[in-house]
Amino acid sequence: MTQTETVIREQFPFWQAVLDAPEITKLAGPHAVLVGCGTSYNLALSLAAAFNAAGHSAQAVPAHEWLRRRRDYAASGVDLQIVVLSRSGETTEAVDAARAARKAGDPVTAVTCFPNSELASLGERVIIAETHPDEGIVMTASASLMLIAGLRLAGAQIDPGSAEEAQSLLDRLEAKLSQVAERQHIVYLGGGPLYGIAVEGSLKLQEMSQVVTQAYHPLEYRHGPISMIDANSAVVFLYSDETEAEEAKLAAELSQKGAFVVGLGGPGDLSLPVKTTGASRALVVLPALQLLGERLAQARGIDTVSPRHLTKVVQIG
Ligand code: F1P
Q: What is the 307 CA–ligand 1 centroid distance (Å)?
């Protein structure tokens, strides 16, 4: 088993510590701006939806956008706080966003995997999600762990069976991956809290195997991107329980146009039921998408421990 796969499979015992951590309580206070880069930004996208659904107004903004173009994302004079997500706690834009917020007097909550990081030193409130020690450049276990921390900050309900279902979904998907591995164009669709996870699934695959991917809110896909679909496409459909019926019609249309549709939580050429509903479905499907990235990389003979052009931390001098 590769190092990346080992970390993906061994992440579940780490989940429990973050699920149980007594210091992670629902965030109080004004509108929350969730910032991060790469995977951490994708988590922010998913979490902003979870915050809003749980009654706390929130938005996700890439760290550099927030740092340099704040006026384009929030009207001046509006009370807000920022939640900065960064596995390393050392990413330049994330750290600078936290520093700028402190200077502006906005409360900062830091979510990171490293207690001695620069980001941790800048947070008024610091949430540590300890990750698997062997995790490499590509974020896998840490993404799930920071998602759990964020869901708890949002006050979202996390289904107690989430870890068990995530593990079972990962195994069920793995058993049927060969038809996806043959395709060269992979599309991820998900709405609400699953949109950030769709973008994250798509990023994993790009990072791990340099496959051309797309990620959209489900019904947006009909409005142009559908022109890309042919027999070379696979679609990973992250169904929302509330909108499954209209999403299933789109899935059928995509299959009919030649795509191989993997339905997580709904119908498809391969359909894998998901019991967990609401925002915690985002958590349940994430490890399966991580393994999908790794398997597709393996099928292409790519070593995901040292992915092309990537480093574990992006620090801009
Ligand atoms: C974020 C990130 C990762 C990406 C790459 C570089 O890091 O962009 O998402 O995979 O390894 O770093 P962090 O701010 O969460 O540490």
A: 13
